[in-house]
Design brief:
Low-confidence stretches: none
Number of helices: 0
Helix content: under 10%
């Protein structure tokens, strides 16, 4: 059974960098054809994919976030990390980590292509 556990600060000040970590158990993040993804849901809005780090270590970002996003991994700890810089109150959301299958390659916004999700971490950007 695959389990994803996201964690990070619940409150971040504007202009700072948000950092979240997702610890994965039950599957090495280097296993072929899985894409370890960050997704968020702002209040009252739909899901937004932010980016992923593939089993190979390559990364792919949503163009809307690309300039201020970095996703990295620690294969020894079997975890991956999101860093989102220059946050504003519009970055307030529930942030999810999820495992994507090959189904997301053509469209990372195809949320049916994610088979395991973390529990979600509420992040509020406020001074």
């Amino acid at each position: 059974q695959v389990h994803l556990q996201g964690s990070g600060p619940g409150l971040v000040k504007p202009s700072q960098t948000l950092s979240l970590t997702c610890i994965v158990s039950g599957e090495p993040i280097t296993t072929n054809h899985y894409y370890w993804t960050w997704i968020r849901q702002p209040p009252g809005k739909g899901l937004e994919w932010i980016g992923y780090i593939a089993y190979s270590g390559s990364t792919y970002y949503n163009p809307s976030f690309k300039s201020r996003t970095s996703i990295s991994r620690d294969t020894f700890k079997n975890q991956f990390t999101l860093q989102l810089s220059s946050v504003t109150p519009e970055d307030t959301a529930v942030y999810y980590c999820a495992r994507g299958t090959d189904a997301i390659l053509s469209d990372p916004g195809n949320y049916e292509g994610y088979d395991y999700w973390g529990q979600g971490t509420q992040v509020t950007v406020s001074s």
